[in-house]
Amino acid sequence: MTENSSRARAARATTPRGSLNRRRILDAVAATVANKGVDAVTMRGIATALGVDPMALYRHFQDKNSLLAAFVDDVFAGIEEPRQSGVEGAKELARQYYRVLNAHPGLVNIALDYALDSPHQLLMGERMYRHMLDAGYDIETAIMLFSGLQRFVLGSALMYPKRTDPNDPAAWSRVRGLFRALDPEQFPTVRMVNEHIPTVSQEEVFDRWLDRIFDHPENLAG
Question: Is residue 169 domain-resident?
Fold first, then answer.
């Protein structure tokens, strides 16, 4: 018997019967996605993390796909109806979307896979479209805006864990040092621009471009 299997059996022995529920399971999925990535989510792995027999999970979820779909929907349930209406309401939904993805590393890789299986993710889209149409956008423009916003938010969230902390001077010094080490003849423009990069947060960059998406002449509400 391996050390891991012995540990799993010991954990199951100390887990009270009937203590397993959807909330505990989904919390374990969230922790696994955050610490090990989506690929690490398996019925057996989650059961081991919870100290229960794998068959116990099947009383709550049919399979891994239904487990991940429930996890995605559970996260999107945290997106609330914005306090403002129209364009500002749509912007607030985009900001919440961005924050939710950043708060759950790995979610960005599977959110779209389970969009139609996530009532709360669909509700976010419903609200987004409603706010844009209420602001005076025609349907075609609203569709194009929503598609662009979705790509902008997902791309920004994908980059989030890889960017430099604006509050860490040492980190910015390292970044500038890396660019200064580039060949000046091959990359003169990149080196020059690097000296002027402001130490702004990712949230500031996100908000600035979110405003520009809606302020673009082609995207102004009628």
Answer: no
Q: pTM for the whole thing?
A: 0.79
Is the four-CA dihedral 38, 39, 40, 41 of positive or negative sign? positive
pLDDT tens digits for 99-120?
A: 999 888 788 888 888 888 899 9
Looking at residue 195, what is its pLDDT? 84
CA distance 72 to 68: 6
104's tokens: 């759950």
Distance (Å, rounded) from C-alpha 173 to C-alpha 183? 18
Residue 54 lies in a domain: yes
What range defines the domain where residue 50 resides? 3-61
Q: Which DSSP string corresponds to 5-36?
A: HHHHHHHHHHSPTT---HHHHHHHHHHHHHHH
55 and 131 housed in the same domain: no
